[in-house]
User: Which sequence fits this backbone?
C-alpha cells in the first residue's frame, strides 16, 4: 500500500488531488498537513466529503521539528508538496513572508527526508510564473527557457525549483518539478481571476445586484487547464517522470483574460453587463503571455487535457452560484 502525504491539504488543488486518488487509485493511504487559520482550513475537503477518509496532521511547515515529527510518524512513499503562499498579488504586499514561507517549508521537508533516511518521490509544485518576462519568440515556453520572474512569488518558485534539483544531485532525493500553468475549476478562491469574475457574476445573477463587474488587466494571455486534469497530471508525474527534472503542464492554448469574462457571462443569464477597470486590481508588473510547450511531459506520460476551457469555466460559475 502506497503512503501518500500531501502538504497544504486544505487547498484548492489538494482537495481535487485527494478526490482523484480516492476515486481512481487503489491500495493508497493518504495523509495531509494543514495549517489552522481564521477560516475553516478544511472547508474544501468537507465539500468533497473526504475529510474523514484521510489522516490529518496540523502543523506549520516552517517549523522543522514539526515537519520531522510528521514524516517520522507517517513515513510516506510519495509527497505532493503543494503548500505555499500562492497569490501573486499578495507576494508584492508581503514579499518577505512569501519567500520565507515557500523556501523554508520546502527546505524543512527535504532536510527531514534526508535525516530520517526516507526514500519518497517528492513532487514540487512549480509555476509558469517562473518564466516571467517572455518575448513572443520564446513562446510556447519550453523548460529550457530563461527564468525571468516578475513577482516575488515567481522568485520563490524558482528557488524551490532549483533546490529540488540541488537536493536530487547532492543527496539523491527523488524530486520531480512540475511547472503548472494556470489551472482553474470548482473551488478556486476569489483571489484568482476566474473565480473573482465567477463569484461576482453569480452574485449579480442570484441576488439581482447591479450588473457591474470589477476587473483588472483584461489583455494578459494565459494557458488555462482544468484542475481535474491537472491533478491527474500530478499523479502521472510522480509515477512516470524522471527524478530531478522539470516538466511544463498546461493546455498549449492561450486565452486573453477578456475571453474568460466573455465565457463566464455567456454561461450566465446576465445582460448588459458593465465592466469597471479597478486600478487596485492591476499588478505592478504583469506577464503579458504565458503559453506552455508540454511536449516533454506528454512524451513521458501520454497525458492530455480532457476538460474544455468552456466547461471548466461553466463548472466554476455553477460552483459559485451554489455558494451564493
Assistant:
Amino acid at each position: 500500500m502506497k503512503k501518500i502525504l500531501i502538504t497544504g491539504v486544505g487547498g484548492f488543488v489538494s482537495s481535487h488531488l485527494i478526490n482523484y486518488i480516492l476515486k481512481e487509485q487503489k491500495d493508497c493511504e493518504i495523509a495531509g498537513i494543514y495549517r489552522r487559520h481564521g477560516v475553516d482550513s478544511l472547508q474544501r475537503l468537507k465539500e468533497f466529503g473526504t475529510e474523514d477518509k484521510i489522516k490529518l496532521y496540523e502543523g506549520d511547515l516552517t517549523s522543522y521539528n514539526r515537519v520531522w515529527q510528521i514524516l517520522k510518524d507517517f513515513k510516506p512513499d510519495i509527497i505532493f508538496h503543494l503548500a505555499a503562499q500562492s497569490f501573486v498579488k499578495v507576494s508584492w504586499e508581503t514579499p518577505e513572508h512569501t519567500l520565507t514561507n515557500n523556501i523554508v517549508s520546502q527546505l524543512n521537508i527535504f532536510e527531514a527526508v534526508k535525516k530520517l533516511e526516507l526514500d519518497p518521490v517528492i513532487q514540487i509544485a512549480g509555476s509558469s510564473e517562473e518564466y516571467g518576462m517572455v518575448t513572443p519568440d520564446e513562446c510556447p515556453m519550453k523548460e529550457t527557457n530563461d527564468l525571468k520572474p516578475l513577482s516575488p512569488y515567481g522568485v520563490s518558485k524558482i528557488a524551490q525549483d532549483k533546490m529540488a534539483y540541488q537536493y536530487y544531485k547532492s543527496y539523491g532525493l527523488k524530486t520531480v518539478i512540475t511547472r503548472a500553468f494556470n489551472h482553474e475549476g470548482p473551488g478556486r478562491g476569489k483571489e484568482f481571476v476566474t473565480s473573482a469574475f465567477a463569484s461576482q457574476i453569480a452574485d449579480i445573477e442570484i441576488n439581482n445586484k447591479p450588473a457591474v463587474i470589477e476587473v483588472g488587466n483584461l489583455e494578459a494571455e494565459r494557458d488555462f487547464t482544468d484542475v481535474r486534469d491537472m491533478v491527474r497530471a500530478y499523479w502521472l508525474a510522480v509515477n512516470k517522470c524522471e527524478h530531478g527534472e522539470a516538466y511544463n503542464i498546461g493546455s498549449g492554448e492561450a486565452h486573453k483574460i477578456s475571453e474568460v469574462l466573455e465565457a463566464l457571462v455567456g454561461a450566465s443569464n446576465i445582460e448588459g453587463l458593465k465592466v469597471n477597470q479597478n486600478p487596485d486590481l492591476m499588478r505592478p508588473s504583469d506577464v503579458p503571455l504565458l503559453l506552455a510547450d508540454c511536449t516533454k511531459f506528454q512524451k513521458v506520460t501520454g497525458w492530455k487535457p480532457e476538460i474544455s476551457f468552456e466547461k471548466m469555466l461553466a463548472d466554476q460559475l455553477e460552483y459559485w452560484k451554489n455558494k451564493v
The mean pLDDT is 94. The CA atoms of residues 221 and 255 lie 5 Å apart. The longest strand covers residues 28-34.
